[in-house]
């Protein structure tokens, strides 16, 4: 028996020692990752975050212009104790963290009961000052070790002062002084116990417990704070009863800006407000910061966005100078410009009067794209080896409950697919969709990484009856422009912390996945080049050094002129423009994609192609396949699709080798001579 007991003791001792060694190793590894003593000594409560464009130009500074720090001596003990009672009642006696509270928190989280934070005020300060916001055992250990170091270097009053000056109280208010002024129009020294308990309630959830947004929740949380203050003898019973019965009267200015997007309250510049807003949102996602937590951004980050400030200015100018947008107050629109090879978003206009916090139409406006969706119908046909010289009859056609018509309500008889896309014919793509099937078109759309949206299961799809947004159109067109690869839009390409360390690199997020065959996108690109050269997209022609640049694109106009689009691309840039009223009401006759959207696209791109360092490039996937003889060119007659012989309705077309026409246009007119 003694022998067994002895063995058990030895095993226990061995395991205990092993555990100590493991913990020691872990602590050693974690300590190496902690800020050094100099960093801790020179800690500043709030550090601005700077946002840059892709060329290193400063876009914005994220900071607090109304910072109002207060010395701990100006904060009455009752106010201090309100925070201690709810956040860390043993603050004055522990050495960094409360073992009992931390143990209870761990147990409740393990068992799945009501979650407790377990973090002392010193730990919260350590996390806010030096650590990332993710929840992990590793971070909690760092937090505990830093708390001990902070307690060693600073007095309790200094720690509490830093804490009270940096915590977030909602409505753009950071620090106890700003909060007291915001909600009660008082200095901290003039706060009552009841008011102090209200303020102590807010940091747990600034949105949920904000008295300006939900007084009921705020009072319920205040009562918990007061009960804790009484329980732990921070206040007497008489003070407790008096505070419970005090009516909370907010300052008349307390609800100012309460409903504004808080991105607006912390931005210094208006260089590119769309990018400031999205950079803040994306940074929170990347850094795993709670969406409502603004204070975590004040940590000296350097956020490098993908926007090119010169291109952004060109986009603003194109909108500002547009005749239709200037003369029609309610008319609005959006632009998004993206590198199809990297996914880097280079420019974005959320609306003609966009400001931070406003509705960003480039990423959030859902519209029907109209004819700018037709290229995906033709791409599906190409995938089925239906060449661009295929002739379909442009004639009256009825499907259950619907008879498609052309823009000018005329029918032109037989025409090739190339001719149909050039003039944006409606009947031909509807008949083509009926032939190839809706499933194949939807696969093209979804393969580009587009989720959700209203996707009709009928032939109106051929005329763009889906609902989508400019960002999705940019994704879909990018997969064509880059030779057939799915691309993920990227707004931030790098983030550095305040120590200059790269903590995020976008290269790790982008994966190259082929979704379309390069030969197929070469063919649809060739067709869309023709639409710009000869068809409805002619008003989008862009020149450099007197030469038409390689560009492809498609106009789009919805029924009753609800939206007008131009969706176009060069080898290095996809740009989507839409124009429309926000209520989706008709813009009036003549407001087509070619008349309303294409001029904005042209003016923007004309500036961009002349920017120093901008490379227009070539559609290499077309040239390469022609050189390799996988694709070949033929001159065809646009009406018959046969080889041209009379130079009338002549157009150069591109074919997969083996699908080229071999018959002459005049075959039937010349009898047997046409064969020779």
UniProtKB/TrEMBL annotation:
<keyword id="KW-0121">Carboxypeptidase</keyword>
<dbReference type="InterPro" id="IPR050396">
    <property type="entry name" value="Glycosyltr_51/Transpeptidase"/>
</dbReference>
<protein>
    <submittedName>
        <fullName>Penicillin-binding protein, 1A family</fullName>
    </submittedName>
</protein>
<feature type="domain" description="Penicillin-binding protein transpeptidase">
    <location>
        <begin position="334"/>
        <end position="606"/>
    </location>
</feature>
<keyword id="KW-0808">Transferase</keyword>
<dbReference type="Pfam" id="PF00912">
    <property type="entry name" value="Transgly"/>
</dbReference>
<keyword id="KW-0472">Membrane</keyword>
<dbReference type="InterPro" id="IPR001264">
    <property type="entry name" value="Glyco_trans_51"/>
</dbReference>
<dbReference type="GO" id="GO:0008658">
    <property type="term" value="F:penicillin binding"/>
</dbReference>
<keyword id="KW-0511">Multifunctional enzyme</keyword>
<dbReference type="GO" id="GO:0071555">
    <property type="term" value="P:cell wall organization"/>
</dbReference>
<dbReference type="InterPro" id="IPR001460">
    <property type="entry name" value="PCN-bd_Tpept"/>
</dbReference>
<dbReference type="GO" id="GO:0005886">
    <property type="term" value="C:plasma membrane"/>
</dbReference>
<dbReference type="GO" id="GO:0006508">
    <property type="term" value="P:proteolysis"/>
</dbReference>
<dbReference type="GO" id="GO:0009252">
    <property type="term" value="P:peptidoglycan biosynthetic process"/>
</dbReference>
<comment type="similarity">
    <text>In the N-terminal section; belongs to the glycosyltransferase 51 family.</text>
</comment>
<keyword id="KW-0328">Glycosyltransferase</keyword>
<keyword id="KW-0133">Cell shape</keyword>
<feature type="domain" description="Glycosyl transferase family 51">
    <location>
        <begin position="62"/>
        <end position="229"/>
    </location>
</feature>
<keyword id="KW-0961">Cell wall biogenesis/degradation</keyword>
<comment type="similarity">
    <text>In the C-terminal section; belongs to the transpeptidase family.</text>
</comment>
<keyword id="KW-1133">Transmembrane helix</keyword>
<dbReference type="InterPro" id="IPR036950">
    <property type="entry name" value="PBP_transglycosylase"/>
</dbReference>
<dbReference type="GO" id="GO:0008360">
    <property type="term" value="P:regulation of cell shape"/>
</dbReference>
<keyword id="KW-0378">Hydrolase</keyword>
<dbReference type="GO" id="GO:0008955">
    <property type="term" value="F:peptidoglycan glycosyltransferase activity"/>
</dbReference>
<keyword id="KW-0645">Protease</keyword>
<dbReference type="InterPro" id="IPR023346">
    <property type="entry name" value="Lysozyme-like_dom_sf"/>
</dbReference>
<keyword id="KW-0573">Peptidoglycan synthesis</keyword>
<dbReference type="GO" id="GO:0009002">
    <property type="term" value="F:serine-type D-Ala-D-Ala carboxypeptidase activity"/>
</dbReference>
<keyword id="KW-0812">Transmembrane</keyword>
<dbReference type="Pfam" id="PF00905">
    <property type="entry name" value="Transpeptidase"/>
</dbReference>
<dbReference type="InterPro" id="IPR012338">
    <property type="entry name" value="Beta-lactam/transpept-like"/>
</dbReference>
<feature type="transmembrane region" description="Helical">
    <location>
        <begin position="7"/>
        <end position="28"/>
    </location>
</feature>
<dbReference type="GO" id="GO:0030288">
    <property type="term" value="C:outer membrane-bounded periplasmic space"/>
</dbReference>
<keyword id="KW-1003">Cell membrane</keyword>
